[in-house]
TrEMBL record:
Protein name, as recorded: Isatin hydrolase-like
Record-stated family: Belongs to the Cyclase 1 superfamily.
GO molecular function term, any single one: arylformamidase activity
Species name: Branchiostoma floridae (Florida lancelet)
Signal peptide (residue range): 1-23
Keywords noted in UniProt: Signal
Domain of life: Eukaryota
Cited SUPFAM superfamilies: Putative cyclase
Gene Ontology BP term (one): L-tryptophan catabolic process to kynurenine
Keyword Signal attributed: yes
Keyword Signal among UniProt keywords: yes
Highest classification ranks of the organism: Eukaryota, Metazoa, Chordata, Cephalochordata, Leptocardii
Length: 289
């Protein structure tokens, strides 16, 4: 073959290989929900979660059977606060439009801002600093605030997560969102939902819940006790928050998860693998020319 045709042939072959490697988009799911089980931390205002085995044995009818009962407040575990939780006449849980519970996800990591301040209130400046690095919070976005508190959720006893004994809410300690930052979001961004890896959207030392009283009347849904935010990227996900549909409810335990699309081939090439293949192909083409 003439030397002048080799670059064309190499480019053709390489292009075919790259198209084959690129493959299809494959979703990766990230579970942002804690498992409900005995002993999980609950806001001191509410009773503890209870799980009772009703039946777990062979049934006289000739089959194996399991059945259980649970008792808990609506605001237990990873759960949604409906607007009616703090706003008279606002949406109750079953009135929230389904489309209001999904949207582009952003994870804002504020762990480095907290330091030793167990009642740190995330500021509007914190949010604006994040936007300078990652771009504006998208329209209809779902914000997840990572304080790092969620990583203590299953630790022994309520103190690491709540900062106090289970029935003492006068000394509750955990980070939250400053009311000025909540108002900034209401005034300047189109946000559907804000999630927290803490027991409350307000700081633990708050006695009047100002952040709740700003977000919920403006139909910004609150999710509390979000889990596994260490697995969620700052941008590029779609979040779904699917509560139990309780009629007239002010909230409900919810299955919250994020989906990230990653392109992959049948051979398992992810986006990063593809970029490596592409770079190698470019080098070969340049050398051939």
């Amino acid at each position: 073959m003439a030397a002048k045709h080799r670059p064309i042939l190499l480019i053709t072959i390489t292009s075919g290989l790259l198209l084959g490697c690129w493959g299809q988009s494959v979703p990766r799911l990230i579970d942002l929900t804690w498992t409900l089980k005995a002993g999980i931390p609950v806001h001191p205002f509410f009773p503890p979660y209870q799980f009772t085995i009703v039946y777990r044995d062979d049934h006289p009818g000739g089959y194996y059977l399991e059945s259980n009962e649970i008792a808990m407040n609506e605001h237990t575990g990873t759960h949604i606060d409906a607007p009616a939780h703090f706003a008279r006449g606002a949406w109750r849980l079953d009135q929230i439009p389904l489309g209001h519970l999904t949207g582009p996800g952003v994870m804002i990591d504020v762990r480095d801002r907290i330091g030793d301040n167990t009642d740190y209130a995330v500021t509007a400046q914190d949010l604006q600093d994040w936007e300078r690095e990652y771009g504006h919070i998208p329209e209809g976005g779902i914000i997840m605030l990572r304080s790092g508190w969620g990583e203590q959720f299953y630790e022994e006893g309520p103190v690491p997560y709540l900062g106090v004994g289970q029935k003492n809410d006068s000394l509750l300690h955990s980070p939250g969102l400053h009311p000025d930052a909540a108002q900034w979001l209401v005034d300047n961004r189109d946000v559907k939902v804000i999630g927290f890896d803490t027991v409350s959207a307000d700081t633990g030392d708050s006695k009047t819940c100002p952040t709740h009283k700003i977000l919920l009347p403006n139909n910004i849904i609150i999710i509390e006790n979000v889990g596994h935010l260490n697995e969620m990227p700052p941008t590029g996900s779609t979040v779904y928050a699917m509560p139990i549909k309780i009629g007239d409810g002010s909230g409900a335990p919810s299955r919250v998860f994020a989906i990230i699309d990653e392109r992959t081939s049948d051979a398992g090439l992810t986006t990063s693998d593809f970029i490596l293949v592409l770079a190698s192909a470019i080098v070969l083409i340049v050398q051939a020319i």
